[in-house]
Amino acid sequence: MLEFEQPLKKMTDEIKRLQEEDRQSELIDHSKEIAKLQYMYEMKAKEIYSNLQPWHRVQLARVLERPTIKDYIPQIFEHFIALEGDRRFGADYAMYGGIAKINNQAVTVIGQLRGKNTKDNLHHNFGMAHPEGYRKALRLMKQANKFNRPIITFVDTKGAFPGKAAEERGQSEAIATNLVEMAGLNVPIITIVIGEGGSGGALGIAVSNEVYMLENSTYSVISPEGAAALLWKDAKKANLAAEKMAITAQDVKSLNVIDGIIEEPQGGAHCDIEATAQSIKEVIVQFMKRYEGRSAEEIKSDRYYKFRQIGEFTE
């Protein structure tokens, strides 16, 4: 449980203790105390989650239990088939994707994939893709373009992998190529930021017609720790950096960078994955309805002006 959630943990622990005492003895009845504590818990939870600070949302975006693309796919799509490899170097397990159906329409699904424990995170490189991951994503997007399939991307990364091997294999070139190629695709593209959306690593699969963020996700050019280290030479001031950087969904929406915010259940997406997935699915379905029947030129033009408007709005 996160630090700002500690008051809730104390109440939860006390409720469990009283319930255990009731189970162990027929002479003890804590029902009134439990009911009072449950009411207090609900009020406190409402107070905490309706007044989250930027750093709190960063912490929720990073929580290990937070759903990944693999959690959402079975809830949103049917008949998903994963596809691997960039046809140049090899498989990158930080980038996940394939073909699927949503409401019986074929689509291509792509996104970063992190792990939920140390072993998984090492396997998926903490969701930080190498160049082959971005080339794989582009391969799948070109395939979607060829067969006229809408593209859905899920962003969940601290950034592209910054290691020596990635640079040697052309990390910046791979991301830059994706930006150019995505801008010219003939099919509609929607992006959902489901966790952290970090730097070019996020943007490499996010040049889309519409971009949405989950309520407690983040989208930024650098991590709060990285910004704090640059600005104040102290990564421990990450909470202060988070306040200044405008990285929350609410901030990014106010800057006209995204098209909408998808609400999460109280406590975060991990508290009710099915409800969160349903909310995401509704946004995707409505997006596809809006772009149904549009010509390739209209789709590309909409994408172009979306990003032009961002620049004009923020100048």
What does this protein look like?
This protein is α/β, with parallel strands linked by helices. It is about 50% helix and about 15% strand. The chain has helices at about 5-25, 30-50, 55-60, 70-75, 120-125, 130-145, 165-170, 170-185, 200-205, 225-230, 240-245, 250-255, 275-290, 295-315, and strands at about 80, 95-100, 105-110, 150-155, 190-200, 210-215, 220, 260. Strands 1, 2, 3, 4, 5, 6, 7 and 8 form an 8-stranded mixed sheet that branches. Helix 10 packs across helix 11 (about 240-245). The two termini are about 40 Å apart. The model has no long low-confidence stretch (mean pLDDT about 90).
Q: Provide the β-strand percentage band.
A: 15-25%
Regions with little confidence, pLDDT below 50 for 5+ residues: none
* Category from helices, strands and their pairing: alpha/beta
Whole-number tally of structural domains: 2
Largest sheet: 8 strands, mixed
Q: What is the CA-based Rg, rounded? A: 21 Å
Supply the CATH superfamily name of the largest domain: 2-enoyl-CoA Hydratase, Chain A, domain 1
Q: What is CATH's topology name of the largest domain?
A: 2-enoyl-CoA Hydratase, Chain A, domain 1
Provide the CATH top-level class of the largest domain. Answer: Alpha Beta
- So, CATH architecture of the largest domain? Alpha-Beta Complex
Helix content: 40-55%
Distance between the termini: 40 Å
> Averaged pLDDT, please?
92
Beta strands, count = 8
Number of helical regions = 14
Task: Give the overall shape.
Answer: globular
Helices and strands, in order, run as HHHHEEEHHEHHEHEEHHHEHH
Function: Component of the acetyl coenzyme A carboxylase (ACC) complex. First, biotin carboxylase catalyzes the carboxylation of biotin on its carrier protein (BCCP) and then the CO(2) group is transferred by the carboxyltransferase to acetyl-CoA to form malonyl-CoA.
Family: Belongs to the AccA family.
Coiled coil: 1-28
Catalytic activity: N(6)-carboxybiotinyl-L-lysyl-[protein] + acetyl-CoA = N(6)-biotinyl-L-lysyl-[protein] + malonyl-CoA
